[in-house]
Model the fold of this input.
Amino acid sequence: MKQAKIKNMMKKMLSNVALASTVVSTCMLAGCKDDKNNSNTVNNSADLVVYGKIFTAENNQMAEALAVKDGKYVYVGDKKGAEAYILAGKTEVVDYSGKGLVMPGCGNGHSHYMLGYALKSIGTMFDLQDDTELFLKKIKEAVKKARAEGATSIFGQGWRLQSLEANMPTRQDLDDICSDIPIYMLDEECHKALANTILMKKAGIINEDGSAGKTTLRGGEIVTDANGMPTGLVKEQAQTYLRSFLDNDNLYTLDIATANLAEIEKYMLSVGYTMYHGGWGNYFVNTNYYQAAQQMDKAGNLHFVMGLPYEIESWMDMDEALSRAVDAKKFASTRVIPRWIKLLFDGGVEAGTAIVDPLYPDGHQGIANWTEQEVTELTRKANAQGLTIHIHVMGNKGVTQVVNAFVNGGKDEMRNTLVHVRNVDEADYKRMAQHNIYVTSGVTWHHFPTGAVEYIREHGMTPVGYEDKAYPFKSYFDYGIPATIHSDYPALSGSPDDPFGIMEIAVTGVLWSENGTPLWTEELVSREQALTALTINCAKQMFIEDERGSIKTGKFADFLLLNQDVLTCPVNQIHNTKPTATYFEGKKVFSM
Done:
């Protein structure tokens, strides 16, 4: 009798527990509230609820609504479920149904906004079509302004070799304009520069008596004339070496860096970027950009997340440079991540300076800035210090050597990253996937105008067979390699910088403003893959995927309201996509 009574009591208790569990589960799914007391509604109400077609970037999942509280997503799901998070007078409701796509904020996996925006404040910009006469005219104007402002360096960027080579300017041409202030003019690819004599003397490339000084430099080329004298043109690492002799502290001050960063943010938010991996944090051979970013963030004025790499050149002392890169980690803050080292392994394929196999048609090989053994050792030391390698490499043989270095010297969990990557051998795709090697792709340049392929072939600008095979992308997805997209601004070569202009190229292989046919169609991706590269994959590259990059409960609410649905609009209209609003941590930080 006693056992039967106990058994009945236990059954009743279990029944009550099951009922309570059912009620709790139903409330979690439907957002139910206690009708007798609305305190639960107040506590769980959201600051913002958005309805619309939502691409979450979580395995291509779609949703109908999201809710945000205290800067983070607290609900992602159907519209009915979101209603439980609305409290009249407290929750802002945005109904974006039928107006366009809602999606996570985008990321730019590698760009030089600091350089590009610095030029607007401290330098001269050239157009790709500028011939020698116009090039020199613009320098004259820059010198006049520099003298009026008491400048100690004259800086510029944007000229194209093909537009000047018929009448290539020399250092003497620049001397005729200005011989007492160093002039440094970078090309549009950021791999070549022209300088006047006084700067070349400061660098020891020309001796004080006017004779030739240093005429060779590891990883670079100092172009000389028939008499062995430097002409003023330097390539690859020679141009970074020369730039280090400018008066960089006065050229690029902390105040200028701060002002530029504010303008960079304004632009990025207007096109939909909420994440940005810089191409080079110490471009002007100082840490002013790091300091500006950290100060801006601590003041609550930084509304995107930025990754900052410290570039090490092959002509530097490796250990000394590594110690400076480690020291730059002190500039870390909530939204500023200085945890990378940037290297330049080779040059560019079409420029004839990439490390390729087979060789270029004329039998030459490109310029290697580092040996495989050096990259292996630097990767080992950097990864041990918590720094990830972010390396520019273009040619397929260069890719093989860098992958060797990452496999033999790196830690898989450090997500060492290849940047640009014009060509890859099949065996390397497999090793990249096995060792968690990331790629930020130069898909921006995956297009050519009609006739360009034939021109490249006729002029031997690439190894045979690679003329129309530029910048793979789909293969990364096929092999399971985490891939992101970047613009490399301002080294654009006429390509777009905004995420949706780039997305259209990734999907079509065509630049809409160009007379061209789709390039290497086997490497084109789906719209969903392009969006994945622009969102969650960029967050992974930056080690912030647990906090950002997709629309998921618990993550920061960084998202866009787009003026059209990039998943369904005509494919040749994707580039017309703009955000009507950009939200960062739940706050609207841009609106049209």
Q: What stands out?
A: The longest strand covers residues 336-344.
